[in-house]
Every structure is written in structure tokens, then in C-alpha cells.
Amino acid sequence: MKKITIQFEPEGRKVETNPDLNILEIAQDAGIGIRSECGGKAICGKCRIIIQDQRPVSKLTDAERRLLSEDEIFEGYRLACSTIAKGDLVVEIPEESRIRIRRMQITGMELPVKLDPLVKKFHVVLPKATLQDIRPDAERLLDSLESEYRITGLELNQKILSNLPDIIREKNWEVTVVVWNGKNLVALESGDTSNILYGFAVDIGTSKLVGYLVNLRNGETEEIVSVENPQISCGEDLMTRISYTLEGENNLKRLQRMVVGSINSLMKQACDNVGITTKNIYELTIVGNTAMHHFFLGIQPKYVSYSPYAPAVKSPLNVRASNLNLAVEPEVNVYVLPCVAGFVGADAVGDAIASGVCESEERSLLIDIGTNTEVFVGNSEDIIACSCASGPAFEGAHIKYGMKAVTGAIEKIKINSGNLEVSYETIDDEPPVGICGSGILDGVAELIRTGVINIRGRFTNMDNERLIQQNGKKEFVIAWGNETVTGKEITITQADIGEIQLSKGAIHTGVAITMRRRGYTKEDLGRVYIAGAFGYHIDPMSAKIIGMLPDIPTEKIKFVGNTAITGAKMCLTSRETREKAHTLSKKIRYLELAVDPDFQKEFVNSMYIPYKNMEEYPTVIKLLKKKSE
Amino acid sequence: MKKITIQFEPEGRKVETNPDLNILEIAQDAGIGIRSECGGKAICGKCRIIIQDQRPVSKLTDAERRLLSEDEIFEGYRLACSTIAKGDLVVEIPEESRIRIRRMQITGMELPVKLDPLVKKFHVVLPKATLQDIRPDAERLLDSLESEYRITGLELNQKILSNLPDIIREKNWEVTVVVWNGKNLVALESGDTSNILYGFAVDIGTSKLVGYLVNLRNGETEEIVSVENPQISCGEDLMTRISYTLEGENNLKRLQRMVVGSINSLMKQACDNVGITTKNIYELTIVGNTAMHHFFLGIQPKYVSYSPYAPAVKSPLNVRASNLNLAVEPEVNVYVLPCVAGFVGADAVGDAIASGVCESEERSLLIDIGTNTEVFVGNSEDIIACSCASGPAFEGAHIKYGMKAVTGAIEKIKINSGNLEVSYETIDDEPPVGICGSGILDGVAELIRTGVINIRGRFTNMDNERLIQQNGKKEFVIAWGNETVTGKEITITQADIGEIQLSKGAIHTGVAITMRRRGYTKEDLGRVYIAGAFGYHIDPMSAKIIGMLPDIPTEKIKFVGNTAITGAKMCLTSRETREKAHTLSKKIRYLELAVDPDFQKEFVNSMYIPYKNMEEYPTVIKLLKKKSE
Q1: What ipTM is given for this predicted complex?
Q2: Cβ of A138 and B312 within 8 Å?
Q3: A189 in Cβ contact with A197 (< 8 Å)
Q4: Are A581 and A353 in contact (CB under 8 A)?
Q5: What average pLDDT does the structure give for chain A?
Q6: Average pLDDT value for residue range A588-603
């Protein structure tokens, strides 16, 4: 079939594709971010693009006439979801339709490992074939590898063999062999290329992908790249995406194509920056939560969303790149880290590895905060994990003025305990647009500290100009209308506080029950690791005040960042780490909170701010006392 | 891209294909035989087809106007190579354009083996997932396989995993698992399907393919199918086909597609006959000479045709069916038997296995006669193999009235030693069209026995009406014009005799030198195995008289038929046989005749009929004496 080429501006990126697809699909499959909230159903009108020469596209639809103004239509505006490409064309993505790059936590704690990648290169000069030495090419190569490097039992494969005769003769019988795990041929290169050996580690997050390009000759991360997860256009959270896969036969394949397209883009970008090509990437390692893991592998994810939430698989997997359409050599191995359970995925295993939480005798708590929050409690002897449905409030969802952690988001809040004057900081110091997760967390903590709300999270009868009424309900003004971009005030509502109570309550419940099942009190804890992008930006004192974290000394809290990706990277450079990951995934005991007998009661108690039994939070008692003095 | 459908008559077979290909290519890729001698270059005019409705095809070319008569063009005749399909259409292949089914030797000797296929089925009923037992689907399955069948260390693979959750739930947690070699998942079927387990063995011959559909539950061959090798249209012999691969970048891929298409057709045909589907074929085994082996695997075959004739690989290979586009489940294993050298291929290893020539202490000679003739000499202690360039004379090529062993070929000849009257037999008892290999061999043997030619192969001065002159050269009339289809006499010429001398001389040279290097005299031989389709039809006495075989008692000669395919079948049903094949391919010493110091002299001596030193052929001396008495 004839292919067509779509050029996306302003990047100038060219995408070759089949005709008769809509431009949103084409962009998503190529990993190019265009906003869409309705998932391509021509409802939200967010996927606006500009096409100057509209001859090679389908005609305007009624939905477009409704969602675009006459002026816009005159200027060439279209909706990407409603525009079918028929031939070569140029598409401009205006600023408002771009998925804004969020502040992303893309680095994390990383334990030192002994450099021992599974993929290695071996350079050999073969004796030429003669009538006196008629060994076949493959056996000649294997013999040289055995005599020079003591490699035996290498499995031959047909794809590598197909060009072997030409490659070994190309540079006068001098070749470099890429071997995986001492037994599989990954690639064959003419001449001596042994000084170039790269790997690529990927964290597939629900909302973002992060890639590390790692030089496997020295273990160094040479480039870090990241991009929004394009699957967002098929659902913000993983449950919506699982539902999406059930709506159409090809939807799972589509989610898979999107994430693979993004990984291919990330690899290309990272390689371009370093001055190599993707042919120099000889292994990939992948982490992600269980749903992302299943989407990436094209594995039916349906049952992860139904009780008893059984995933298809949790073992580590080695998959050939060609089976996944990754743009590297076909025999390159893709190592997918193991999962623990339906809601404790390979990303959590990455956290555990990179933080070392399971290796030390020190009793630790690890919390990876996200829409689902994973909790690990234990030490090298025994470790228990659970998953808490903490929801998307920390990502700004379900909060009246909530937003993601992008430019203009209020991220820090202080309230004067005397006059309730508010000081705040925004991302990039731009005028405020809304409040992101760390801001709302600060806000709620400050409201309780200053007595504006009580332990149940209700507004008290305090009187202040910042306490306003909207539709008969109290709200607390964080920023006045003259300070904000929209000209309207930004507030924290009673409902917002309720959302935060639900979120922090879920986390507290998970931590409390898991600690109890492991037999720990908070005094036993030597270290509390906070992982994940959100965790990195929160104020630990605020987190303690609202009761999201136990009341432990701040010096015991360690913010470890994106340990999912550093765990993946450690697996790329170290065979031993992979063995640890596998052992861990089997050893970690998964606790299903929903069936724990204490769950209901603990959850109710955890809804209090900080907690029903205040004695658990002496630091908070002290703060409140100080205020009342 | 839109697909089109071509219906080939009279079979009614429908082929779905891309438009804008010529009909010869479409037929070849689908394994449908249409004659072509020029390889699709619009020179030979043999690929005649009839298309009644010519609207969906390209216009008549100049070549077609030249090669077809006006009447034919009126009747809808076209040349398949010159007709481009644009839409759905019906193509009739007239009788004259069909590749005639040759008499094929498709069965062979087969040693009994212990039934132990590498692919096995295991039926399990899994405990259902509950909140108390939240093991992932894959681990649940592995646990059950371990506890019920003690299978451990099974490698999970992403393709099988992708549908695992649905399959295990489809029939209430009851599944049948297909496992290869105790470690790889081949397929997963819902319910209990353990009573259906088939394999398919294939011999890819230069001129024909033979397939055995084998029931792996009892080791029985349930169906034998065969077809001409469609690659014939790209060259009759393997050297021409290797040259063909060098003429165009995609030609190797094309040869691969042709043979894969034929195997897919054979599998479908065999399964239809037995009442199963190709999904029930869980493993394939493949033999073929080294060139066919390389073509099938898409491996660069170029260097097999240049000194020192190094193949790319000789080890046994296990390839996934999906990598070869075979129409079975993607993870089905394809076991390709090992080769010995560039001209002693996997088919010869099949011969050695099925005849047992390398297992017994008895000293044996095995000859697989073809365009290249493989010779094995030895016993269980040590075995030497060589390949002789015996050429295509035995297939009727380079012989004035030579033809393949199809209907109307003279296959047996007797000449009365008194009046030189000739009696002959033809295939299917039809009036003679020409002489096939076994006929020409009989003819030359009878000519020497009756003294019409001398030991140098020259016509003597005998006077008889059957000795005629053509262009000043003597020919011997086998059939008079009034007996033949064409109305012209069928003769054996001086040049024909020369061709047979070259062919049989090559074989004799190979046998003699290999026997010498192994330290055997003909008296040492306990058994002589004659393998291959041609060998099956020759008269052993004629073969001795012309000196193709050593002068050994006829009762020691065993015609074993197509042992290449039976060797492949034994590998399908027996793990031990595969190990033997591998050991053999390493153990057999390959003798490169071309560099043997005795080669030139031996070859000259072997051109005599039966041999320069007549004392080696006492039986022939006796016959000639009898004649002269």
C-alpha cells in the first residue's frame, strides 16, 4: 500500500503512515503529544491543529463547525481527531494543543553495583575458509569464540545467520559478536566495534515515560530523556485505560503501539544527543506498574481490574525486541522487571532495588506515592507490600483549582497563624494558574496548623476575609483574583479537603496495617523512603501534619526520587541486580488491604487530620499547642 | 492496502494477494505450479494461462503477441509472467502449462525408534483465582504443571502470555499446554485437547517437496503429500538458483517465500485429508541439501557455490515458525536437521539416520543419487562422506531425447544381443515421448553388453538398421517414429553416452576414492544402500554394467527410497534421533574430492565403461564373454 508522509510542525518531525487514519491517531502512534480529553470522540475540542493546505485531508465535520470558530476555520484550524489524512501534508500543532511538559522527577537514588551487563561484545579475527579448512562460517565463528573467550553453547539463530556470510567477509574475516547472557547471539558487526556498547532503561509511568541511555562499558547514564505517556489520550488513569481496551478489539494493540512509539522516539532522541544510533542499543530494561507492564507487552489486562485483581504474570520476562516492534536490532533482548501483584508492579520492584530497602537489616518503610501508592515494610528478613488507592488528588484531579505540576502551579503555601495571610510559590515563578499536589498538601497542613479547619477536616467558625462563601459553602482563598492568570481567586474548598483526607487516609491505612502485620511500631523504623515524582516535591512536615506519613523524625525521611527508573538502570548494568529483583518479586509478601479485618476501622480513623488518636502525632500536638499559646 | 483475490482453475483455489504483481509470481508464491523455463522473462512462452474476463489485468505485451497465436489471443490466452493482476479475477491453467507431477519416490526405509517427541501436551485444571489465592495466571499455570507433571523451568513468552488470561478462563480454568523440549511454551488451548498432537516432516528437494503428517501420539505417518519445488521456475538446478539470488536483492527472499508457500500448501492439504487443522501441527522437521536449507532459512547461499564451498552453518537449528512465516501457531518450533558440508546437506544426514549406515559395525556404502550424489563409506566407528557432481543427465537433462520420469518416458530398455531388436517400457504405458534416467542407464548398459559401443563408449563398426547417421554422427534408435508421440524416432546419441559416462564416472570416482580413504575394498562391504528417487528406479545390473556401482552381489544392494524424509520423520518422533543427527553431522569426515591427489586419474579411469581396469568388474566380463560366445 502507498504510504503517506505527515510533517508535524514546529518540530519538523516527519511520520510515514498509512492513509485514511485520523491525525490524532497518527500523532499518538508516533509518540507526538496532542491534547485530547475525550479520547478522540470529537467532544472536548482540545486536539486543535492547523493545516494550511487542506486538499489532502477530509472535509470539515459538523463537530468541527461546532467546536471551532469561523475565524479559526478560516485560519486552517481543524480537530486532529476529526481530520483524515489522505496524502502528504504538513500539520502545525499550536501551543494550546501541546501536552505541556510537566515537572518530572526523572532521577533517583541509585545504589552502586558491580558492572556486569548481560550483553557483551567479543571481537574476533577468524581464520579464512580454505579447501583445507572448510568449516562452515557459523562453526568457524563459534570455534574462535570458544578458543579466545571460552564461550560455549551459544545458540545460533536464523536471523543472525542470514547475513553472517557477508558480514564476516566484509572486513576481511574480522567481526564483533554481541552476545546476551553468554548464550544468545544479539548482533554481528563487521570489524572491531567492541568499544560501543549501550543499553536503554525505561520507566513506563501512567503519566510519563523516562528513558536512561546507559553506556554499558562504564555503567554511566549518558542521557536522560522523558515524555508524557501518549496513552493519556485514552484515559488519565490506568483503570480508564483498561476499560478502553475492552471497548474495541484493537485498543490494547493501540495502547501498545503508543508506548512502543514513545520508547522508539526516546531512544532516537537520546542516541542523537550522544551521537550514536539506536543500533548501538543492545539491551533494554523496562519497569512500569502492572497495567503499564501488560499494555507494553500486549497482554490482556482485563482481570487486573476485577477482584481478585490477578495479573497475567509477575515473573521477569525476556522478550525479543522484534516481537515488540522496538526500533533496535531484532534480536536485542528486552528485560521486563518482575511484578509483585496486580497493584504492586515492576516499578515498585525497581523502587525496592534502588533504595536497598530489602537488603539491609534496618527496618524500613518505603512509600511510592502516586494514583496508586505502593508501601513496603520490612527489612532483609521479611518484607510486606501493599497498594493503596490514594487516587489522583495529588496530581491535581478532583480538586477545584487543582492542576498538574506545570508552569504556574502553586507548589508551596504558608499561612500566617496570626492574620491568616498567605504566601505561596509557583512553578517557574509565573502568576498562579491553580494548585498542584504539593501545594494542596501544604495548604491543608497550614489550615489545620492555623486552626482554620478541625481534626475532622471541617472549617471552624473562624472569621477572616479569606474565608469566603461560594454557593453557601466555605472556601479558603489562597490567591486573590488580581494575582492570578484568570483573574479569579484560587481557593481550597471543603470538598478539596475531603479529597485530600481520602487520599492521605488511604496511604495512612496502608502504612498502618502493613506495619502492624510486619510487627513494627513507628519507633522501630530506621528509615522512611519516599519515592516517586510527587513524593520528591512534598514538604515532609506538611505530610506529617496531615497524617500522610507517620510522625517520625524528619531526619529519618529520605526522598529517593524516581527509583523505578534507577532500579531498571541497575538491572541493565548488573546481572546480580536482576537476580535480586527476581528473588524479591517472589519473596515480598503481598497484603490485600481490602480483605484485611482492620481495614474499615483503620480507614475511618485515618480520615482524621492527622489521625483519630492524636497521641500518634506528638509533633503535631506540639505545633497546635504552640499556636494556641 | 486493498487485497485482491485470484481464483486458479480447475482446482478452484483462491489466493488473496496484493495487486500489481504478475500472475506467475502470485502462483509461485502460493505454491501453484505453472511451467516457466526462462524464469519469468517472457522468452520461453511456457507459462500460458487463460483469462476469460481480461478487464482486471494489464494489456497484451509485444512479447505475448509474438509468443501467442492470434487464435489463442482470441481465446483468452496470456503469458502469466506478462500479465499484471489489477483486481479480482479467474485464471485457468491449461494442461500444457501445468508442471506435470513426476513419478516421485516419497516413501523410504525407516528404522524403528522409541516414540519420544520433543513437543508434548499437558492437561491441567487450575484452582481459580480468589482473594485468598491471588497468584498471577502464569505462575498459577506453572505451579500446576510443576505439581502435576514435575515440569520446572518453563520459559514464559510474551506471545503466549498475551491471551493467557482469557484462555484459562474460557473453559472454567481447564487448559491444555503445549510444551517444547520441556522448557518452551508452544501454545495454550482451552479445555482438554491432549488427544490431538501432530507434527510435519518436510524434505525440500531441488525438484520436489515431500511432507509427512505424523501423529505424535503413536508415531504413525497419517498422510504423505508432495509437490514440485516451485523454485524450479528460477533455475532447474541449485547452482542456477544460487546465481538467481545474486541477480536481485529480493531474490533470496523470493525463493524463501516460494518454498514456505509450498510447505504451507502441503500442510493444509495433509491436514484437510486427515480432518485436522494446521493449528494441530506443533512441530516441523526439515531436511534438504545445503542450498535448499539456506534458501528455506533465508541465509546467504552465495559462498556455497565458490571454492572452498563453505556453507553458512551446519549445526542443527531450532527456529520459531513465525520467523519463517509458516502457517502454524507462531511459537511452533521448526527443527532443521544439521548438514555435513556445502554439498553434503541435511538430506544426506537424513539418509544416514534412516538407513542406520553409521550405527552398525557392518561396513557399508550409501549412495544418494541426484544432480549431486552423496556418498557415505564406513560404519559405526568412522564414516567418510563426499559429494560427486554427477550432473542432471539422470534427470533427462543434456540428453537428446531425455525427459523427466513422467508419463510417456521410456524407463526400461532391453536389446536383443542377436538382432539388436529393442523392447522398452514406458511410464503409464503411454506411447513414448522420450527417455528418462533409468531408461538411458538401461540403454547404455545394453549397448555395451551387445557390443554396440566399446569400453570407451564409442560406437563400434557394427552394422544394423538401428544404427543411423544424423549430421554425420551415429545414433542408436530405441523407438521408431511410428511408435512415438511425435512421429520422430527416439535415439541414444554418442553425446548422450558421453553425458552418462561423465555422470557415472563422477559417482564411481567418489565411491572409489572414499572407499580407499576409508581403507575398504568392495569385498569388505556388507551392504550398499541406494537412496533417492532416481536410485529407486534403476536396474542394479545396468548400474553395475556401466560401472556406476561397484561390482558387488546384487543381494547386497538395498534400495532404501527417500530416506531423507524418513530421517526427518524419525527426528520428529524421537529426541534420541536428533541427538544422533547432531553427533553424526560433527562425526562424519567430509572428503573434498576436488583436492584429493587421486581425483584426476581416478576420474579418467572411471570414464571407461564399466572401468579402465576391467578386472574390477568380473560380472561384466562374464556377460560380455557370454555375448561373444
Answers
A1: 0.81
A2: yes
A3: no
A4: yes
A5: 92
A6: 94
